Amino acid sequence: MTVVQVAKSKPGNTTSCADDEGHLRPDGQDQYTISEVAEHTGLSAHTLRWYERIGLMPHVDRSHTGQRRFTNRDLDWLAFVGKLRLTGMPVADMVAYAEMVRAGDATFGERQALLEATRLDVLQRIDELRDTLTVLDHKISTYACAHAAPERTGS
User: Fold this and answer.
1) Of residues 117, 36, 47, the one with CA closest to residue 69
2) Most buried residue among 27, 59, 85, 141 by CB atoms closer than 10 A?
3) Distances (CA, A) of 24 to 28, 42, 48
4) pTM for the whole structure
5) By the 8 A CB rule, do 89 and 118 touch?
6) pLDDT digit string (tens) for 107-119?
7) Residue 60 contacts residue 70 (beta carbons within 8 Å)
8) What's the distance, CA 130 to chain centroid?
9) pLDDT, mean of residues 60-69
10) Category of 139 on φ-ψ map: left (φ > 0), alpha (ψ -120 to 50) or beta
């Protein structure tokens, strides 16, 4: 699906409730060290610790030596947080969303409202970027025509 198709779609038809893509993970492994998660996600260990400290990450289990042990579910959550970051959602809103998730099903409506507001912000940014692209294309065309004009007059 292209960005334009997604942008034109309505929230109700962007995905179905049955859409749950599998995620590729190392063979059968469901426990990861912070360095493995950092490598897999591209986030630094410092960022992962900060996410945990501010409440953006759910509780991360520890080994008997106190080392963090992330699961596939944690990796899925981090992938979602990465998408929220790309939307431009403020960290405080991401933390609030995480708190709502931890609070349970009673917060479905609040979570939906937050995501719908974020979606509207994303659509507005897409429109702004589309307008910006139009301006850039016009300028590029202007330069291309100006560059080609002397060649036509010189022959």
Assistant:
1) 36
2) 85
3) 10, 16, 21
4) 0.74
5) yes
6) 999 999 999 999 9
7) yes
8) 20
9) 92
10) alpha
- In angstroms, the Cα distances linking 66 to 42, 55, 62, 74, 155 are 23, 19, 5, 17, 77
- CA dihedral (72, 75, 81, 83) positive or negative: negative
Contact 60, 78 (CB under 8 A): no
Contact present, 96 and 114 (Cβ < 8 Å) = yes
- The number of helices, as runs of H, and strands, as runs of E, in the chain is 6, 2
Output the six-digit token pair for 47. Answer: 């960022």
Query: What are the φ and ψ backbone dihedral angles of 147, each rounded to 5 degrees?
Result: -70, -35
3-state secondary structure 29-71: CCCECHHHHHHHHCCCHHHHHHHHHHCCCCCCEECCCCCEEEC
**Mean pLDDT, residues 34-38:** 95
Q: Are 120 and 80 in contact (CB under 8 A)?
A: no
Cβ neighbours around 48 below 10 Å, total? 22
For residue 13, the one-letter residue type is: N
